[in-house]
Design brief:
Order of helices and strands: HEEEEHEHEHEEEEHEHEHEEEHH
Largest sheet: 5 strands, mixed
Shape: elongated
CATH architecture of the largest domain: 3-Layer(aba) Sandwich
Number of strands: 15
Helix content: 40-55%
């Protein structure tokens, strides 16, 4: 009789072990199904401080740090491909890569051909002034000379204020040269250009500062192929999490302020 109970117990133990093994195998299958996807993302790394190649031949910049944070929050990985601007959008259409992050302004014309993530940065016009000046908006620059590149949004904004003496330039670098020489007291340009000149360039970063926040709306977005809903959802989920945690503001402080 005792032998019979030992047989029953042995069968029970074996059954439990088999069930446990089955659950482990099932879990392994589920984990395999959840394997993290890697998306190839193109960027034209010639636009500091948004995207550029550092001395170690690595692609770095605000956009790179931002998308890495988005990927971490969204549960996917990113492989970057340095790509010339000419033809960068067409590469998405032919599936050469999955997305583009390269300081791309969201426009109605582009939205007809491509899908965009939700906006992740307002790269609108900002005012740059010498460090020893006190101003935060264009309205504070009455009676002073302010420069911008001819035909840009910045030039149009300056023209709205008749109390400012406007000076236009063929190339924005000339405006910064004039401000360094004291010939003008301010420059208006888009946020990334302002950050490059005021924060990154050795000859200027101790002389200039960005005054206040952008005063026009020119939003950047991540470009993907029309209809790629899976990637669009992953990107937007990640962007929302990054913004909710304030990671985007930390990166703006690092690269753009």
């Amino acid at each position: 009789m005792k032998k019979f109970w030992w047989i029953i117990l042995a069968v029970f133990v074996v059954s439990i072990f088999a069930v446990a093994c089955g659950k482990k195998e099932e879990k392994a299958v589920v984990e395999a199904a959840k394997e993290v996807k890697t998306f190839v993302v193109a960027t034209d790394a010639t636009w500091p401080p948004m995207e550029m190649v550092n001395e170690n031949k690595e692609i770095v910049g605000f956009d790179i740090d931002f998308l890495n944070a988005v990927a971490a929050e969204g549960g996917f990985k990113v492989e970057y491909k340095n790509t010339a601007w000419d033809g960068i959008f067409e590469g998405v259409e032919i599936d050469k890569y999955d997305a583009v992050i390269s300081s791309v302004t969201i426009t109605e014309e582009r939205q007809k051909k491509y899908d965009f993530s939700m906006p992740y940065l307002n790269a609108g016009q900002v005012l740059i002034i010498p460090n020893d000046m006190d101003a935060s908006t264009l309205a504070d620059m009455g009676g002073k000379s302010v420069g911008a590149q001819l035909g840009t949004t910045g030039a149009f904004e300056i023209a709205k204020n008749k109390e400012i003496t406007q000076k236009n330039y063929d190339e924005i670098g000339l405006a910064f040269e004039d401000m360094a020489a004291g010939r003008i007291q301010g420059v208006v340009c888009d946020t990334p250009v302002a950050a490059d000149y005021a924060l990154q360039r050795p000859e200027y970063k101790e002389k200039f500062k960005i005054a206040g926040d952008p005063f026009t709306e020119e939003h950047y977005g991540i470009v993907i192929k029309k209809g790629n809903q899976e990637l669009l959802d992953l990107l937007n989920t990640g962007i929302k999490a990054v913004q909710a945690k304030g990671i985007d503001k930390q990166l703006e402080k690092k690269w753009l302020r």
